[in-house]
Amino acid sequence: MSRFLHLIDLVSEWTGKLSAFLIVVLSFVVGYEVISRYVFKHSTAWASEASAMLFGAYIILGGAYTLSVGGHINMDLIYQRLSKRQKALMDIVTFWFFALFCVVLVWKGGERAWYALKNLEHSGSLWNPPVYPIKLLLPVGAFLLLLQGVAKFIRDAVTLVGGRDGL
Amino acid sequence: MSVGLTTFLLFASLTVLLLSGLPLAFVMGSLAVLFNLFLLGPQSLAMISSVVYGVMDNFIFIAIPLFIFMGMVLQRSGIAEDAYDMMYKWIGGIKGGLAMGTVAICTIFAALTGISAAATVAMGLVALPSMLKRGYDKFIAMGCISAGGTLGILIPPSVLMIVYGVFASESIGKLFAGGILPGLLLSFLFIAYIAVRSHLQPQLCPAIPPEERPTWGERFLALRGLILPILLILAVLGVIFGGVCTPTEAAAVGSLGSLLCAAIRRSLTWTVLKESCYQSIRLSCMIIWIIIGSSCFCSLYTAVGAIEFIKEIVAALPVSPYLIMAGMMFSLIILGMFLDPGGIVMITTPIFVPVIKMLGFDPVWFGVLFIINMQVGYLTPPFGFNLFYMKSIVPKNITMSDIIRSIVPFVIIMILSLIILIVFPDIILWLPNKLFK
After folding, report:
1. pTM strictly above 0.95
2. ipTM above 0.85, yes or no
3. A:91-110 residues touching chain B, CB 8 A cutoff
């Protein structure tokens, strides 16, 4: 079990850390558009759509990593005063809200992505890239997020029943 | 179900779930799912994913991670060290000079970055040890950094203003322009306070003794430290206010510019790049996932008619619009004690801004006041980001209550300037009206 949880951590960490470098690519893509417009005197056909895709990937793929390092901000007015086991109990209760949101994103995002894939949908712009890769990222990213949440849920359950730490 | 009951349930469940400690993004996302399911039926759930695709596809939001990345690189680039060195050589010989200079550098940093953390961390690492070594009072030394750091969200560029602009459907360029004079006003008041305190109590912030002061040659040489920051400010703000670029494009210029600055300073190591990237994605995802959750939640406001309902209630209140304004400011300051400023903007803007417009106030003016309230939020316990940043930097013998005590005079100055800006709205509105016809 602890190896399974560790694997989830690693997947979250590395998708997040690899996606983190997209910000450099994104800077160059948007920057290139500016240079192209003011130095070469014509806008690119692709930069705006490409940057939106990079941004979408960056945000969605980073969600699980952010969760794994505790980066999603919460209100800890009451929470911080709870003991370790009380926190675990609270997290087990609120996990179902979190899971519901993720499941809807996987489900409805998956439907949308499947539609795009089935019809080989393209954006219809001048550049006209296929849209299914970016549509697919939402269900994938939301699934990774859910997985990281499940890992935390299992750890909380272990804490609650007073088992060994370090899972 | 009546609109009143639905609105009540919406806010009651929001409050309860927020208090449970579930991250803000998932609180709002899951409530959006639940309310959609029960009020509008399962077929309405497709709205949730389409809202998320909408956020992923919004060109303005791209500016947020870019400005964050810019701040993270600059924080590690050594620019703050150079600027502090310059300032140390020029005004270290004045009583309180190092603290006043720290505020001045925070102001420059604020014009470079859009977040509060960058200047707070950079100056905390550079200026605080130096001031403490020179025998400065620890409260003034810590207070001027924590408070100066918050200028990052008021002086453009500002990530928080971008979020406000999108949720209030206001021009981001106007908001940016509106933050400039209030930012300089706050900076001036902080410096004036330090000057007066160190004049009245000379032992608080001792001047560097004459024999240790640098020569004029050294002083002029140190001015080099300002060249890069000033060029970068001109590049980023110039392209926005010149109408040449969108905020997103300006953010990319800034992000590339900050990499270039770090490269010129020879501080662009693999570790610096890697750490900047990792920290940027965590901070960006934190903010954008709250945007995702709250965009889902906000589409509910509209769907159930909550906004119209609240507007009707406020319109029926037999009180002056200024009293309602004051009530809003007060609730923002209270919320700022407990919640992340980004979250506050996203929860309250969709409700406050329609009311503000109905009362006949300018939403740009309100936006700038809003941001100053959030600056106070960064400083007020129990949940004040800058307090925690400061705690992570200070020597072990300085306690959290010392840090909290250090910010008190600066928070008073902020509230004072809020009052000034409410009485004289032109300090905010003059520049945006001049720049954007």
Report:
1. no
2. yes
3. 91, 93-94, 97-98, 100-101, 104-105, 107-109
